[in-house]
Amino acid sequence: MTRRIKVSKDVAFFGVTTIIMLLMIFFGASSTLWQNETSGDAQTSFLPGRVVEVVEDRTSLNEAGARVGSQVLRIELLSGERRGDVITAQNLLFPIEHGVYAQTGQRVLVFFQQGADGALDNYFSHIQSHDRAFAIYFIVVSFLALLIVIFGKSGIRSAYGLIFTFVTIIFLLLPLIANGLSPGLLTVGISLLIVIVSIIAIMGFQKKTYVSILGSCIGILCYILFYFLTGLALRIDGFNVAEIDLLIVTGFYIGARELLFSSILIASLGGIMDVAVSLSSAIFELSTAQKQVKFNTLFRSGMKVSKDIVGSSANTLILAFTGTFLISLILFATTNTQYQVLINRVDIAIEILRAISASAAMIVCAPATAFIGASIFSKGGSS
């Protein structure tokens, strides 16, 4: 009877969350976020195509080894209303923004602007980038297949959690922010939704699941606190980020100050959940090995386990954030930037804000999870 209730809970959970995902996909797809732009009588779109002929090639290698110059290409369009049409496109390769050196048979993404009458002689086009869509889909599917093959049912549950997270961010969070909703509050709410659904999808309906969810939620609250305290000390208000400056230039003002907060929270969410899930599982296993274990003993054991978990997770997170800034650090080193100038740069302060606020949230998440887990499992309760 108990087993039947567990199965029905899982079926109901996956059924409801799948319906929610489909609704989010419908909402995101129906928004104007990813639609083609129209300016006057012209429509702008980016279409995949295949190079059928290199008509002219005026490129060469510069001192840095990058190819620069121009090409004239004949390209067959592979989608859209003009699928199958062969157009002529310019391909410009610049020293700074390196373009695509096109060759016959290569798939590329074409910037395509065509008049309302659809006439072939009323268009302008050039190469935007490589067509990487198929490669990306193949890599993602291969990763999910590897996860499922190695871990079986647990892999399927983990893959479902990843898919839910992706759909929620792409088809719900981004359109809502683009439509002017407050990014800060919205990201916190969606992060809590991702935590609940992902952890239940991975672990099922068990006591350690609820411990993991509570620990992750406390980690998110701690992140909020550390972000604002660190941001206040470093005088980072969100407008210091270059990408946000570009958004403001495009006319996006609502909630621009909160976008840095949102981006760091999304980036650190996986680390926070990892600490909570790993620690709650470890404490649960310790409690099952000793049925009558006391709270103090279980809590101390949990804190010993958390030292290794938090140490490796915090190190991974800090290295991940630092790695994204590595090229800039090399640039500062090669240009002999003075230390006082370097340490006071706003981009250095932003990277410190990213690393410290996210890592501090994981550090506090560990004892909170250990305390909650020890409180529940020390009573001899099972999953």
Q: What does this protein structure show overall?
A:
Helices cover 62% and strands 15% of the residues. Strands 1, 2, 3, 4, 5 and 6 form a 6-stranded antiparallel β-sheet that branches. The model has no long low-confidence stretch (mean pLDDT 83). The chain has 2 domains: 38-131, OB fold (Dihydrolipoamide Acetyltransferase, E2P) (Beta Barrel), CATH 2.40.50; 180-377, Multidrug efflux transporter AcrB transmembrane fold, CATH 1.20.1640. The longest helix is centred in the C-terminal third of the chain and has 32 residues, at 346-377. The protein is built from 11 helices and 6 strands. With 383 residues, it is of the alpha+beta class.
In brief:
This protein is of the alpha+beta class. It has 11 helices and 6 strands. The longest helix has 32 residues, at 346-377.
Task: Kindly list the characteristics that best describe this protein.
OB fold (Dihydrolipoamide Acetyltransferase, E2P), alpha+beta, 383 residues, Multidrug efflux transporter AcrB transmembrane fold
Question: What name is given to the CATH topology of the largest domain?
Answer: Multidrug efflux transporter AcrB transmembrane fold
The helix/strand series, from N terminus to C terminus, equals HEEEEEEHHHHHHHHHH
The whole-number mean of residue pLDDT values reads 83
| Shape type | globular
Distance between the termini: 16 Å
Q: How helical, in percent, are the residues?
A: 55-70%
CATH class of the largest domain: Mainly Alpha
Give the CATH architecture of the largest domain: Up-down Bundle
Total DSSP E strands: 6
For the record, the count of structural domains works out to: 2
**Class from helix and strand fractions:** alpha+beta
Tell me the β content.
Answer: 15-25%
Low-confidence stretches: none
Question: How many distinct helices?
Answer: 11
Largest sheet: 6 strands, antiparallel
Radius of gyration: 26 Å
